[in-house]
């Protein structure tokens, strides 16, 4: 669980709402009001009056917090939360998720690139048994060719490196149920790539294809630097294969070292070498091979320690059914 103090007072006796929407916001003053209108309309269609919208201000430098503060005082469905500084999209999202109380939770960006109106479809699919309904981008409008192609390349590499298939063309726009959220919050790792963590969890996941629009207003908060950081979090969070590369190099260099040593020995037997050359070559070749091999072995242990340190649960239960549970009377 997150070590956060209980910031949000859990009011006893208050039933959890049917739906929570979690919206990370960083310098989103230009769209927030529009976002709130559309989100509210979508929530009313799907959950009547029984919903909450959790806005997380991720240390914005514009008037985002003033706007959120006002929304919270005007609309009882709004929970406005502000982080002490800019922690980044994934952590802002995680912070919002940690206070969401709903039975179902929608994650959506503040910029209306993902249409809130899809919520109704997502709810239907969840009614039919899905635990996670994620939006699958069939088209991305208003995004640069660079962003599109880098995203495609990134997901292809990621999937080659990891054992958990992480769906391509999928962002954090998704509806999850309480079961999935509780399992997600029980993963205490620091570097959070939320969509990867949810893929890792399993459960019954369904894709909902949609067209991703251009931002309603404002500009992207994901410059190249942040995209690279997200990519690094994703790869190191789900794969130790890059560490294994050293074992591969070690194997190759060891084989080369043996071949060079053999050649040096044969040349020495042939008698046409300078004094000291043979022993020098053999020592250098073999020792550098051994060094790389040792590094490779350390890499293996380091990779295991790294994965171990994440303290992820070993497994996640989806359901448990029995006629007689703990404390139940013996079945007749
Ligand atoms: N965001 C955030 N903190 C950040 C950067 C972004 O909370 O440090 C929010 C942002 O307000 C938006 C969402 O994360 O709601 C996605 O960001 P953006 O739309 O800029 O990313 P893009 O869609 O361009 O990948
Ligand atoms: Mg966006």
UniProtKB/TrEMBL annotation:
It is a multi-pass membrane protein. InterPro entries: Glyco_trans_2-like (IPR001173), Glycosyltransferase_2 (IPR050256), Nucleotide-diphossugar_trans (IPR029044). Keywords: Cell membrane, Glycosyltransferase, Membrane, Transferase, Transmembrane, Transmembrane helix. One of its GO terms (molecular function) is glycosyltransferase activity. It is found in: Cell membrane. It comes from the Bacteria. It comes from Dokdonella koreensis DS-123. It holds the Pfam family Glycos_transf_2. This is Glycosyl transferase family 2. Residues 20-184 form the Glycosyltransferase 2-like domain. The chain crosses the membrane at residues 247-271, 277-302. Belongs to the glycosyltransferase 2 family. GtrB subfamily. GO terms for cellular component: plasma membrane.
């Amino acid at each position: 669980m997150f070590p956060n103090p209980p910031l949000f007072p859990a009011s006893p006796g208050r039933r959890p709402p049917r739906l929570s929407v979690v919206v990370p916001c960083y310098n989103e003053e230009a769209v927030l009001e529009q976002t709130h209108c559309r989100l509210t309309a979508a929530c009313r269609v799907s959950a009547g009056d029984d919903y909450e919208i959790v806005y997380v201000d991720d240390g914005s430098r514009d008037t985002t917090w003033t706007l959120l503060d006002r929304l919270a005082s005007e609309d009882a469905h709004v929970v406005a939360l502000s982080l002490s500084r800019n922690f980044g999209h994934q952590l802002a999202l995680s912070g919002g998720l940690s206070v969401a109380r709903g039975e179902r939770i929608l994650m959506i960006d503040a910029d209306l690139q993902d249409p809130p109106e899809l919520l109704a479809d997502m709810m239907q699919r969840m009614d039919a048994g899905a635990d996670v309904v994620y939006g699958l981008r069939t088209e991305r409008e208003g995004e640069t060719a660079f962003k599109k192609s880098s995203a495609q390349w990134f997901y292809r590499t990621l999937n080659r490196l990891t054992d958990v298939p992480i769906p391509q063309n999928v962002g954090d726009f998704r509806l999850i149920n309480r079961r999935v959220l509780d399992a997600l919050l029980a993963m205490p790792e620091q570097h959070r790539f939320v969509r990867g963590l949810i893929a890792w969890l399993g459960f019954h996941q369904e894709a909902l294809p949609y067209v991703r629009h251009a931002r309603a207003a404002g500009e992207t908060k994901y410059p190249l630097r942040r995209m690279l950081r997200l990519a690094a979090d994703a790869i190191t969070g789900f794969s130790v294969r890059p560490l294994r590369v050293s074992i591969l190099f070690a194997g190759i260099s060891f084989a080369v070292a043996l071949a060079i040593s053999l050649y040096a020995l044969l040349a020495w037997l042939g008698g046409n070498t300078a004094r000291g050359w043979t022993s020098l070559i053999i020592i250098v070749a073999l020792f550098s091979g051994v060094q790389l091999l040792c590094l490779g072995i350390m890499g293996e242990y380091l990779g295991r320690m790294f994965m171990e340190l994440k303290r992820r649960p070993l497994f996640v239960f989806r359901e448990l059914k029995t006629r007689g549970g703990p404390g139940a009377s013996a079945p007749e």
